[in-house]
Amino acid sequence: MTISPDAADTAQPSGPAPLAYPFEQPPGLAQCPMYAHLRATEPVARVLMPSGDQAFLLTRYEDVRTALSDPRFSRAATLEPGAPRLAAAPQNFKSLLNMDPPEHTRVRKLVSREFTARRVAALRPRIQEHTDALLEAMAKQEPPVDLVPALAFQLPVTVICELLGVPFEDRDEFAAWSRVFLATTAVSKEEMLAAQLALRTYLANLVAAKREQPGDDLLSALVSIHDEDGDRLQEEELIFLGISLLVAGHETTVNQIANSVVALLTHPEQLQQLRRQPELINAAVEELLRLHPPGNEALLRITLEDVELSGVTIPRGSAVLPSLSSANRDVRQYDHPDTVDFDRPSNPHFAFSHGTHYCIGSGLARAELQIAIGSLIARFPTLRLAVAEEELRRPEGMLVHGIASLPVTW
């Protein structure tokens, strides 16, 4: 179907003027107060995206869960001609991220066959080994040390390179493309399109190399699946699947390590609790994911029919932005939602999304976060920020967000 980019606007001409999105981000880890305001007063709010298109921003837990799991909210429809988009440059390629069932089910099943819990469990000793080496190198430096390049960046990049079979020496190149790939307003439309092309060319060449000389890695396994039965995994799907795994496989974890460390260093009581009870590391990681996820919103959806949420009718063909970070702080779902609490009895947060598009790499991300954070606070018992929290800045105009630079001392 062809979707009018201003369908939502024409459907509610007398509604309030749309809010400019994204909202201004406070320093440090503080959440923009606009989200709490909207949860209380306008949980389904019209916003104007950087592309100039309009969307409905969802801020309450139940509405977000509906949008992430209800088939009336489509990812595939975002590829239709004229569909609303978030950024100025469209990402018009078919990947696991913008498929709907049954196509999504087919491709995800193939990836899940290789991206198994057993493979992740087998990686844990290597993750620990890499973490220990990075922390040892950090300890030899004169503080303050920027934790982002020292640990938060190096660890996830090293792990995803090993998992996928990507040359580690290419890390700076593909990381730069990834940052542009995930931009909304930080770079120009031309830079976005150039990064998309560069990543596609890079992965296509890497797929060709794996075909000639396969290894014991995930990308080689996916190439083998394609070559055995191209009907199950087409060449373009394979290439863009590789892009999705490479980009998402390190960018989100880079940001989450930094976010989590800042949260701990600015909450000394919880940090001391975790030092006294290191067995709480899994619960601590989940709580920090809930409070400070690496992205505010889930990927854009398009409604396939009229949908009512919180008393608002969202017309067919409308763009919808489910806010993961806002839903994670909804008092209707969580007691004292703005408090760091490692003893929560239940924590069904949306940091890894929900439903069909629940993050396939969540197990790997959790393993990296548990090992990195647990090892860091054990190795540096006097670790603390080297600057005031207010001096910490997040990169603006990005789909994911962390801390650009994180000076620490001990």
Automatic annotation (TrEMBL):
<dbReference type="InterPro" id="IPR001128">
    <property type="entry name" value="Cyt_P450"/>
</dbReference>
<feature type="region of interest" description="Disordered">
    <location>
        <begin position="1"/>
        <end position="23"/>
    </location>
</feature>
<dbReference type="InterPro" id="IPR036396">
    <property type="entry name" value="Cyt_P450_sf"/>
</dbReference>
<dbReference type="GO" id="GO:0016705">
    <property type="term" value="F:oxidoreductase activity, acting on paired donors, with incorporation or reduction of molecular oxygen"/>
</dbReference>
<dbReference type="InterPro" id="IPR017972">
    <property type="entry name" value="Cyt_P450_CS"/>
</dbReference>
<keyword id="KW-0560">Oxidoreductase</keyword>
<comment type="similarity">
    <text>Belongs to the cytochrome P450 family.</text>
</comment>
<keyword id="KW-0479">Metal-binding</keyword>
<keyword id="KW-0349">Heme</keyword>
<dbReference type="Pfam" id="PF00067">
    <property type="entry name" value="p450"/>
</dbReference>
<protein>
    <submittedName>
        <fullName>Cytochrome P450</fullName>
    </submittedName>
</protein>
<keyword id="KW-0408">Iron</keyword>
<dbReference type="GO" id="GO:0004497">
    <property type="term" value="F:monooxygenase activity"/>
</dbReference>
<dbReference type="GO" id="GO:0005506">
    <property type="term" value="F:iron ion binding"/>
</dbReference>
<keyword id="KW-0503">Monooxygenase</keyword>
<dbReference type="GO" id="GO:0020037">
    <property type="term" value="F:heme binding"/>
</dbReference>
<dbReference type="InterPro" id="IPR002397">
    <property type="entry name" value="Cyt_P450_B"/>
</dbReference>
